[in-house]
Design brief:
Largest sheet: none
Strand content: under 5%
Order of helices and strands: HHHHHHHHH
Shape: globular
Number of domains: 2
Number of strands: 0
Structural class: mainly alpha
Number of helices: 9
């Protein structure tokens, strides 16, 4: 029962939030209402039917389109003109270094307290996949998930709501904690929490695409490590 509630909760967060934002900005951009209903219906139908096999594909497509809609009305946070790849790399490397240190200390504490720790289900699933299916999962992990999760947790939850009502710091802490809880894994809680907190700073000071790049970098390293484990 709890697992079903969690799965429905994740679906509402990852799939419905992009849809709600799409409807809001479509109306704001004076798009045809009949078209909005049709697109929304198709999106929901495909998402509900293929959510177990498509993963973040449909939310990813919706988020990209929504970003285009938002950019027509609002300038700044989604702007790609000021994005500097070298700076993004520097932030990502620093972020990974800090996250790794915090995660190491956290795991040592868990072990000392005799907590039973295990890897995320997605990690075990990736390790068990044959190489051809593993490769299919790569873009989902390193591209689709970062774009959608940064949009939902950092832009929507943190930047549009929590930051305005409870402030920058508490908003970053709460949204990062929620981001970690959604991944429901004790072992990775600290590293995901740290990633979320750093990405709140990035989206607040540098823009959405810096947060996405940092997330992509983090997931890329994880995928490379998993791939090496498959051949050892």
């Amino acid at each position: 029962m709890i697992k079903i509630i969690i799965n429905y909760g994740i679906f509402l967060i990852m799939y419905i939030v992009p849809l709600i934002v799409f409807i809001f900005y479509s109306l704001k951009n004076s798009l045809n209402r009949s078209l909005i209903v049709v697109v929304s219906s198709i999106y929901l139908l495909l998402s509900l039917t293929f959510s177990k096999v498509s993963y973040n594909l449909f939310p990813f497509m919706m988020v990209i389109y929504v970003i285009i809609l938002i950019s027509k009305k609002e300038k700044g946070i989604f702007d790609t003109k000021g994005f500097n790849i070298l700076k993004a790399f520097k932030y990502a490397i620093f972020s990974y270094f800090i996250s790794s240190i915090i995660s190491f200390i956290y795991i040592i504490i868990l072990i000392g307290l005799n907590f039973k720790i295990s890897d995320q289900k997605i990690i075990n699933k990736m390790l068990d996949l044959p190489i051809n299916k593993f490769i299919i999962m790569v873009p989902i992990i390193i591209l689709f998930a970062p774009v959608v999760e940064e949009f939902v947790f950092r832009w929507f939850l943190y930047n549009k709501f929590l930051k305005k009502y409870i402030g920058i710091y508490w908003g970053a802490i709460l949204s990062s904690a929620f981001f970690s809880v959604v991944h429901f894994n004790l072992k990775s809680f600290a590293v995901i929490m740290t990633l979320g907190f750093i990405n709140c700073w990035l989206i607040n000071n540098k823009g959405y695409w810096y947060a996405v790049f940092n997330h992509v970098f983090f997931n890329c390293v994880s995928v490379i490590i998993l791939l090496l484990n498959k051949f050892t």
